[in-house]
Structure formats: structure tokens, C-alpha cells
Design goal:
It is a single chain. By secondary structure, this protein is mainly beta. The chain has a four-stranded antiparallel beta sheet, with no helix packed on it. The relative contact order is 0.05. The N terminus is likely disordered. The radius of gyration is 43 Å and the shape is rod-shaped. The protein is built from one helix and 35 strands.
Length: 455
């Protein structure tokens, strides 16, 4: 390594020209020879490549020419003597270097005078890194896993920086707050040991890191991400592989309305959709259309939702299986797109182009049976066809007689448009048809709802 010296200055008073100076150093064998100082041992031999201590208690170095070195590196370039020849110890030293954009390098010498090289050193409470030549490092160092500011101090916590190998010409900031300036820098997080947080080796491209109780999403080089981020790489058709990151770097939790990820937009009905993210930022998703069960219902903030496999809450009339039973199902109503949550009670719903009456219990299930003298099946009101006056509908083991409004006949005998007489009990269940027992007979099957399958 090329060392850059300073102009030689005059020696201190104890080594000044004249008899007084020689006398002051005589005990140590110092002798002035022209503009230089030499040292002779007790045997009168001139000394070379050794350290000698003066009467002032300070150390000076006799170089290979047998003269006191000044303003230069000595002893294997591990030590430096100043313009007075005194060993630099316990302090910083700035040395000119024309190859450095700043025009100089900084070095630090410990209390014994040795230059700190190729390691971290804590100085006045801050950590600094020095390369193999002893030069204090700044910027990205050690495989870009650490960052030292312009004064050489190792950084911890959040720092807004240019990515490694990019030009850095602006002062870094602390904390992931405002990213609106869009100056080409990114936020990076460094642990208390100064090491940058990056994805694990078994991760693909991104990593969620919980910092102070909040999840952040980091790229392969540790740069904090914003917007939609695919945590399993750049190619995924599964919304669960995505996180939405706020502009402050925090992974979104709870409800949020936004455009779907660009690569998945073909899966969505609208340009902007509602998503719900759990406390780790994972979008809530549901089953494929037509396969939902009551186990898929999600209660959030007092409302109950059913999510599609694209992470968007469904709306309209939906077919839902009961528990783990793959054969028993009923309808649930999730209102309009603006509502998209489970509703209860009586509603008039567009069904196959007609507005039909539905009734849902306090659990949200489409009701099957008689309610307020009307017959329902999976929530849908069952009615006799127009012009028939009455019709018999079989639900389970019971036959009900309903009119064209869906009202059941109770404890009476009625006649349909063809003149067939139906006798019913007080529960509206058919007893006789034209005077003959209706037991074990099966009539018209109930009509199922017209399911609003979501895309």
C-alpha cells in the first residue's frame, strides 16, 4: 500500500537544535546529524530499524538508514510517526490519498500505537471497520452485509440507502417513514450487530421480518418492498403468496381495498377489490366456487364472510355445504357487492331474472320448512305454478300443499285447477288426495335457489 507523507516539521523543544537539545537526549544516545537525528547505544553503535524512547517518554522510530523517521509509516506499516517523529497512539490520523475521492483516508491507532487492520473496532461507543491496510471503511462493506456512514460509523436499525453497487450521494435517513420522494433509495434494516437482514437461504426472493411487532417485506438484497410483493418469487397464481406492503414498509393487515396484483388481475371481476389480511399479512382465501362449507365462513368484526379462492369476499346467493357433509347443503345470502357479508331474515332476491322471496335463519342458513305459513326450501319460497291454484311439493318425507303465493293450506281441503282435492292437517301436510291416503306418495320436488357462483 502506498503511504502519503506530510511535510516534515521541526522537532519538539526537547529535540530542538543546539547543545541544550543534545544534552536533554544524551542519556538516550540521541545525536543530531545535520537535519536528522540518530541514536547510538552504550557501545557507540548506531541503531537501525528500532524504536527508541526519549527523555520525554515518547517513542520514536530509527529507520533503515539509521535516522529518526518523520511523518511516515514504519515498522511493517503497522505504525505511524508524526512530523515530530513521535509515534501516533490512541487517536485518529488523516493521511492524504489522491486515489480517494475525498482526497484522504482515515486510520486509527490503539494505545500501543498499532494501526487497527482488517477488523471491527469500537471507538467512543461507535463501531468502525478497517480494511487490511487499516483504512476506515464507508458505504457498503463485507459482501454488502454492513453499512458505514460517511464518518465510518456502523449503522443499525432502518436506513434509507441506495442499493449496493449503486451511486450513493445523499445523506441517509433513519426510520421507514416517508418514501414519497422516490429518489431511487430503499429502506434497509440492520440488526443491533450491524448486519443487514436478508432472506434466508431457503427463501426465494423475499422475506417477512417482524421488527418491533410489525411485519416488513424485504427483497433478496434486503431492500424493503412496497405494494404487492410475491413472497415465493415472481411467478405465482395464488393470492396467498402475496403480501401488500404499505408505503411505510409495513405489511398490511386487516381490510384493504386496492387493485389486485398485476399478474393475477385476470382472476378478478373488478379493477379494485377488497382483501382481508391476517396478522401476518396473508390474504384470507376460501375454497373453489361451489365447494364452500360452513367451516369456510369467517367472522370478522361482528360480520360473517365467505371468501373466494382469489381472496375476495363473495356476494349474492351462495351454495354452502353443511360442515364436512359433502351431500347436504343450503343457501347463504351475502348481499350486494358493497355488503359482501352474511345476511339474515327475509329478502327479495333476483333469481333467474325474477325477484323471489327468501328467508334465512339467525345462523344465516336458507330455511327449509314452513315459516309464517309460507313454505321454503334452502331459503327459497316454494310456490305453485301460475294458473294451477295449488301444487303439492315434497320436502323430505312431508308433502305440502302451497298456492301460487307460496302460502300453505292448513287444516282444510282445497281443490287445484284440475279439480283434484287435497286434504291437509293443521301443519299443512297432505293427508288425502281425492279421498285416498297420500302416505308414501312423492309429488313435485322443491326448486333449488339459483346460485350466484363468483368468478
Amino acid at each position: 500500500m502506498k503511504k502519503h507523507g506530510w511535510a516534515v516539521l521541526v522537532l519538539t523543544a526537547v529535540m530542538s537544535l543546539g547543545t541544550a537539545g543534545i544534552t536533554a537526549m544524551a542519556a538516550a544516545g540521541w545525536v543530531q546529524e545535520g537535519n536528522n537525528w540518530a541514536y547510538y547505544n552504550a557501545a557507540g553503535n548506531r541503531q537501525y530499524n528500532v524504536w527508541q524512547q526519549g527523555n520525554d517518554g515518547l517513542w520514536r522510530y530509527i529507520n533503515g538508514n539509521g535516522v529518526m523517521a518523520v511523518d511516515t509509516w514504519v515498522d511493517g506499516d503497522d505504525y505511524y510517526v508524526d512530523a515530530n517523529g513521535i509515534m501516533v497512539a490512541g487517536k485518529w490520523l488523516q493521511v492524504t490519498n489522491a486515489d480517494n475521492p475525498s482526497g484522504y483516508d482515515w486510520y486509527y491507532f490503539n494505545s500501543t500505537g498499532k494501526c487497527i487492520k482488517e477488523r471491527w473496532e469500537q471507538i467512543n461507543g461507535s463501531w468502525y471497520y478497517f480494511d487490511s491496510n487499516g483504512v476506515m471503511q464507508t458505504g457498503w462493506i463485507l459482501d454488502d452485509m454492513y453499512y458505514c456512514d460517511e464518518s465510518g460509523v456502523m449503522q443499525t436499525g432502518w436506513q434509507k440507502l441506495y442499493r449496493p453497487n449503486e451511486d450513493y450521494h445523499e445523506e441517509e435517513q433513519n426510520g421507514p417513514f416517508d418514501t414519497s420522494d422516490d429518489d431511487g433509495r430503499y429502506w434497509f434494516y440492520f440488526g443491533t450487530n450491524g448486519k443487514k437482514v436478508v432472506p434466508n437461504d431457503d427463501d426465494d426472493n423475499f422475506k417477512q421480518k417482524r421488527i418491533n411487532g410489525v411485519y416488513y417485506c424485504l427483497a433478496e438484497d434486503g431492500a424493503m418492498q412496497t405494494g404487492w410483493v410475491c413472497v415465493n418469487g415472481t411467478d405465482s397464481d395464488n393470492i396467498e403468496d402475496y403480501r401488500f406492503v404499505n408505503e411505510n414498509g409495513q405489511v398490511r393487515t386487516g381490510w384493504y381495498s386496492t387493485e389486485p396484483p398485476e399478474d393475477l388481475q385476470s382472476q378478478y371481476e373488478n379493477d379494485v377489490e377488497w382483501f382481508y389480511f391476517n396478522n401476518k399479512g396473508i390474504p384470507k382465501v376460501g375454497p373453489d366456487k361451489g365447494t364452500a362449507s360452513t367451516k369456510d365462513l369467517e367472522k370478522i368484526g361482528g360480520n360473517t364472510y365467505l371468501f373466494g379462492n382469489n381472496g375476495v369476499p363473495v356476494y349474492g346467493l351462495q351454495k354452502v355445504y353443511i360442515g364436512s357433509n359433502e351431500e347436504t347443503y343450503t343457501s347463504y345470502y351475502f348481499g350486494t357487492r358493497e355488503q359482501s357479508s352474511m345476511l339474515k331474515g327475509k329478502f327479495y332476491i333476483d333469481d333467474s331474472g325474477e325477484t323471489r322471496q327468501y328467508y334465512f335463519t339467525n345462523t344465516g342458513r336458507g330455511y327449509t320448512g314452513v315459516h309464517d305459513n309460507y313454505l321454503y326450501y334452502m331459503g327459497r319460497l316454494q310456490k305453485a305454478e301460475s294458473g294451477t291454484r295449488y301444487e303439492v311439493i315434497t320436502i323430505g318425507s312431508n308433502n305440502y300443499v302451497v298456492n301460487s303465493s307460496g302460502r300453505i293450506a292448513r287444516n282444510t281441503t282445497v281443490k287445484d285447477s284440475d279439480g283434484i282435492k287435497y286434504k291437509v292437517n293443521s301443519s299443512g301436510i297432505l293427508l288425502e288426495e281425492d279421498g285416498e291416503s297420500a302416505d308414501d306418495r312423492t309429488y313435485n320436488a322443491p326448486i333449488e335457489p339459483d346460485w350466484d357462483y363468483w368468478d
